[in-house]
Design brief:
By secondary structure, the protein is an alpha+beta fold. It has ten helices and 37 strands.
Length: 668
């Protein structure tokens, strides 16, 4: 009996006899080969060519009538390379006795999260039997995190199906990382004949309640007449408590997603946990990940915003496509709904945009909404990202029109930032993997830098943006200096956006950057960790910005000149579930080893899940050598301190005068 997932379109046959055909890559299949095989037969799996739309350009629009990951058709950070073949496990099983063909566990928590009504449905196969005469029993047990049973029952099995329905009082709750423990139960189902166990299914379960609601005060917006509708809900409640979602967009750890396994997932997800992420948005242009990904997110407390495989296309009202989407989406929902980490279903990426052209009336989205309601109505569903009030972009430290990321995010007021980026050049080890040695420096659009996205990748601009680096620091003498300066900008840019989004609570409830990982060695990009799994300096900056509680600064720009009045608002950010005694925060500038005037602020006690705005630190910038200056926020309470870096320039007439020693470009 072969089981597993095949290519996108495939068929199973014995010799010339076709046993099964399917279009899709997410729905598992199981075939009974008892009467199909004899000693001399051959089992074939025929894999058809990858789906394309004739007459379309060689871009992602060729994926607009299939559930194949559109990113494989080419993106501004992914080459055009479309994998095909068996990408999930497939195997043969030999059964002589009855066995469990399927088992599903679902539950619903009451409003107070004190009682879970659950259902466990078990499907039984009886090889060689049609009358169900063999006496069988099903034993179901739920054990707590300590292994002790909290529920135990036995029932006589019917011919093919059995359903348990009951309740569990005062279950331990599963919380996302930073909000509480990840209490996990073990559900075990045994098929028994007398005292003999014939088959066992076992899986982990966490009890939690997820809701999407309008932010506090949101129903009062818009205030002016005539009124339109308020912004859609974007604030996530977990077990009735508001959670600020902070994390990243998960794309693909590898172009060849069939090679992904538990080890690859664990390495990257542990880094996400260590960086204080509590959410990953599984972007709709990629794949629905393999099971170990979601199991690890359950374990680590990382919420999952799960998108269906739709992105940046107009998925038309085509009957054949809708039939495939119906089958594939139901399989996805049924597989993932058991996971505690699953927080939001989303139709796909950027579908309500000019380059997609879809609306709430598009049949594909109405179908997905229906399927999520029928299969997993306890988990929120939204049509796409972004919706009204949410935001995607920008993706550079400095836009082509000269606006810095400081100005852009500082003037924004959105309910969720579900994509924003700040690009940098990759580490030298990645450049050596991606580029010929003689093309590494200086970067040129007439080289491999372009094929690896350094130039021409997004609206013709690319991700290396050497002109931005030169704007702040002048020409770089070598590749090491260029990388260092580029990654400094990325680190400070990401830190600024994450902290500013947190300051905009309660209107803003999410900060999820573009993006976390990368599928192959790029010359430059927005990613926080490289294809090899190594964190970039921006990862460490984001890790600092996402601590539950920290002293934070709100500067207005990155480049400062001698004689100007530097200023930055001081804040205390607290996402913790408890009140914090912050104590005294001390602010000063370090310019070439010389400290400027010191400001002391007693931040006092800060309520759980709240921020406190403090004074504005101002100082006239003295003369020093050109380089990088630091704003240091020291704190009486350990763990709250923060450091911010800026470009500093002396006056031209003073540039030749000797300044303080030690002004060098700094690394994280």
């Amino acid at each position: 009996m072969p089981k597993g997932n095949g290519s996108y379109r495939y068929r199973i046959r014995v010799n010339d006899r076709v046993l099964y055909e399917y279009e899709g890559m997410y729905k598992p299949f199981s075939l009974d080969l008892t009467d199909a095989l004899s000693g001399m037969d051959t089992l074939y799996i025929d894999i058809f060519p990858v789906p394309k739309r004739p007459g379309r350009p060689d871009d992602r629009s060729q994926a607009s009538l299939c559930c194949k990951p559109p990113v494989s058709y080419g993106w501004d950070w992914h080459p055009r390379l479309i994998p095909s073949g068996i990408w999930e496990d497939i195997w043969l099983e030999k059964h002589r006795e009855p066995y469990i063909a399927d088992a599903a566990f679902t539950y619903e928590l009451d409003d107070a999260c004190e009682e879970a009504q659950f259902a466990c449905e078990v499907e039984i196969n009886r090889p060689g039997e049609t009358d169900g005469a063999q006496p069988l029993e099903v034993h179901m047990q739920i054990a707590g995190s300590d292994g002790a049973p909290v529920y135990d029952t036995m029932a006589v099995a019917g011919e093919f199906r059995l359903a348990f329905r009951d309740r569990l009082v005062h279950p331990e709750l599963w919380w996302p990382s930073g909000s509480g423990p990840q209490a996990m139960y073990t559900v075990r189902v045994e098929l028994m004949s007398g005292r003999r166990v014939l088959d066992v299914w076992e899986w982990r379960c966490g009890f939690r309640k997820t809701e999407l609601v309008v932010y506090e005060g949101g129903w009062e917006e818009p205030r002016q007449m005539p009124k339109s509708r308020s912004d859609p809900p974007a604030t996530l409640l977990i077990n009735g408590r508001r959670v600020f979602c902070k994390g990243s967009n998960w794309v693909l750890p590898d172009i060849f997603y069939g090679t992904l396994d538990e080890a690859v997932y664990r390495g990257q997800l542990q880094l996400a946990k260590d960086a204080h992420f509590n959410m990953l948005r599984v972007w709709g242009g990629g794949i629905v990940n393999k099971e170990p990904f979601y199991e690890l997110c359950d374990e680590l407390g990382i919420l999952i915003w799960q998108e269906f495989p739709l992105a940046c296309n107009n998925y038309e009202n085509d009957k054949g496509y809708l039939a495939v989407l119906d089958s594939e989406s139901r399989a996805i929902i049924r597989r993932l709904r058991q996971h505690a980490c699953l927080a939001i279903w989303c139709g796909g990426n950027e579908l309500f945009n000019a380059w997609s052209g879809m609306t709430e009336q598009s049949h594909a989205l109405r179908l997905l909404d229906r399927n999520c309601f029928e299969e997993d109505r306890q988990t929120p569903f939204i049509m796409t990202s972004p919706l009204s009030g949410m935001a995607h972009g920008g993706y550079f430290f400095r836009e082509a029109d000269g606006r810095e990321i400081y100005e852009i995010i500082g003037s924004s007021r959105n309910t969720a930032y579900t994509e924003f980026g700040c690009s940098s050049i990759s580490d030298l080890e990645i450049l050596k993997l991606a580029l010929p040695r003689d093309e590494i420096f200086p970067p040129s659009p007439d080289s491999s830098w372009t094929s690896h996205h350094g130039f021409g990748a997004l609206a013709g601009r690319g991700w290396a943006v050497p002109e931005t680096i030169a704007h702040y620091f002048g020409e770089s003498p070598d590749i090491e200096t260029l990388i260092q300066r580029s990654q400094l900008l990325q680190a400070e840019g990401y830190k600024m956006v994450f902290e500013e989004a947190r300051r905009q609570q309660p209107r803003c409830s999410m900060a999820i950057n573009w993006c976390y990982n990368e599928p192959w060695p790029t010359a430059a990009g927005n990613n926080l960790i490289s294809w090899t799994g190594r964190p970039k300096p921006a990862y460490e900056a984001v890790k600092q910005a996402l601590r539950s509680t920290l002293a934070s600064a709100r500067p207005v720009r990155f480049l400062w000149n001698e004689g100007e009045d530097f200023e930055a608002e001081l804040w205390l950010l607290n996402d913790a579930a408890e009140e914090v005694e912050a104590g005294v925060v001390t602010a000063y500038l370090d310019i070439g080893g010389v400290r400027t005037d010191v400001l002391r602020w007693d931040a006092g006690r800060v309520s759980a899940g709240a921020n406190r705005r403090g004074p504005t630190y101002r100082v006239r910038l003295p003369h020093a050598a050109a380089g990088v200056m630091e704003l240091v926020l020291a704190a009486a309470r350990p763990g709250l301190e923060s450091v911010y870096r800026f470009a500093y320039r002396p006056r031209p007439q003073a540039a030749q005068q000797p300044g303080p020693a030690g002004m060098n470009y700094m690394n994280y």
